[in-house]
């Protein structure tokens, strides 16, 4: 019997990866390529969608080669992608129109402020279960249509197409299938989260032509067959990266939660078939939908800047040569020396949603060394997690008992220990840190029968590491108080 | 070898110069063809001895050059780069995985993956193991680390003679992997293989440990399948760190 594999395409914010998984959900090979980040103005972040597609075309065969596998051994492809990033392209030529506008981009802040006051805004909020914010793709799409003369007319004629990254990749993989999945669609503000289709009222509110939108499909179910990059292989799943991580962590039951530490960090709690509306600044989102079954929903706490703070420390301050060295530098001191960094680089996300906030470093004295700054960088990720967990506990009425973590930053032991300390719950890493890719692979494998059912996937989950809280309660409270005071210093920096 | 001589000249030039130098300046100064100079610079950049400024494209000495005397690979970097291969090793072998480097004559555990049976286990990253009595330690000793002066006894099987140990290390170099069978803890065994970076330099070791009955056959020989799993993982990490395929 030839061994068969599932391939995940993880199209992330800084890089694209193709990962080959085996039947136990273990990584067999990986190929990765970073893509260029464009920062044309402060607050603007763009990607070249054509470059990203070229990377996928190259990485697919490379990952297979490294696994020593051939294309006919691949049972299915799953896609996990950076969410809310907005791509426009020409239906006839397939060429992107301008750069993709990335989820971190805040160019729409003035427009969003204006839209918030318009009649109909409340309806959009209700149907999408999201607050009006620069984070989501709907406002971004509206901005692009406003900005480029003639674009809206071409979009109305169906000549210009919109998609988030998975839509763009599926279009290219299949040579012209224009579809999205419910999880990505739920991040546009244009979806009605109950009907799971585009809301005509919301489209009208944002002034977006229906003709440019992809068809909304379940996340898990065969989308089509690839003709490029992986010719002949079925595309079995597409999920937003955070929903993919929830799925990869096998959080299939209501009450199960995970936090993925990447560029930003995202805590998702499965709430089952019921949509829970947050009163504490969290988002309600679609967790996944298996074809033929009702959707599962999740509460989400999104933190904009965690890993990217380490990258900033490396690339902009040049205090370390590689991201993992932050731990080495942080261990040169025993505490933060009274210094706190609040990375509100593009405003604050959950639970504050303050787009006018900007970052601060507070508590600076002549005592502070780069080691203290490194500590403050790591601690910022932990305190932001604490704020989101507090909000989640309040919304769900349950206290989180353990936190399942994944993502590249789980390699940082100091950070993981600090998270356990400030949350006062055990932090657990599963035996597959690449849960975003794994979730996409799981979805794709389920869709084509490579894995039989959710129970089978659950049996693949094992604990690889655990950090237990050791911090004195009094110190935890003092430090949390300091952090919250530091956060309050970021408010109202950008003046309208 | 001419290329090494030229590389040394490039490094001396960069060390002596004020600030960053362009490709043209370097090739002119050394009277070398631009293509040759570029090739040398790219290789030096790959190993971290030279850095290229992103904006100007000019060259300067790299951070690795300044740290030549102190181990060149940051331990947190090593963990970060090997985490994706340590997990599959634990899954395939069913045993706990550790990655170690040398710290002052002992093995420093830089990464630890629990045995995947969901029993209670404690993370021991940061703890120290004896070099001569563990598979991780022997893999490091076999490829250049200095053995401690005193070889402490932990069990009746611990190798406490320097001659005995040297013979064992020769066997490790021949086989490409190491083992400890009840040499540190009665009833326990471990297997390990070296992690190599560019040029074949050994920067750490990765291995599994567990009950001797699971790791070894009835004649106390390590099971070939587990040895293969450990070596595959070591090769995968090495490949990611830039070692040539071997």
UniProtKB/TrEMBL annotation, chain A:
SUPFAM superfamilies from the UniProt entry: Actin-like ATPase domain
UniProt-recorded Gene Ontology molecular function terms: glycerol kinase activity
Binding positions for glycerol per the UniProt entry: 83-84, 135, 241-242
Activity regulation (UniProt): Inhibited by fructose 1,6-bisphosphate (FBP).
Gene3D superfamilies on file: 3.30.420.40
Entries under Pfam families matching the protein: FGGY_C, FGGY_N
Coiled-coil residues: none
Keywords (A to Z) from UniProt: ATP-binding, Glycerol metabolism, Kinase, Nucleotide-binding, Transferase
Domain Carbohydrate kinase FGGY C-terminal: residue ranges: 257-447
Catalyzed reaction equations: glycerol + ATP = sn-glycerol 3-phosphate + ADP + H(+)
Positions that bind sn-glycerol 3-phosphate: 13, 83-84, 135, 241
PROSITE patterns, sorted: FGGY_KINASES_2
Annotated pathway: Polyol metabolism; glycerol degradation via glycerol kinase pathway; sn-glycerol 3-phosphate from glycerol: step 1/1
Binding site for ADP: 13, 17, 263, 307, 408
Keyword ATP-binding listed: yes
UniProt cross-references to InterPro entries, sorted A to Z: ATPase_NBD, Carb_kinase_FGGY, Carb_kinase_FGGY_CS, FGGY_C, FGGY_N, Glycerol_kin
Domain Carbohydrate kinase FGGY N-terminal intervals: 5-248
Top-rank taxon: Bacteria
Function per UniProt: Key enzyme in the regulation of glycerol uptake and metabolism. Catalyzes the phosphorylation of glycerol to yield sn-glycerol 3-phosphate.
UniProt similarity note: Belongs to the FGGY kinase family.
PANTHER family assigned to the protein according to its UniProt record, in alphabetical order: GLYCEROL KINASE (PTHR10196:SF69), SUGAR KINASE (PTHR10196)
Annotated HAMAP family: Glycerol_kin
The name this protein goes by in its record: Glycerol kinase
Gene: glpK
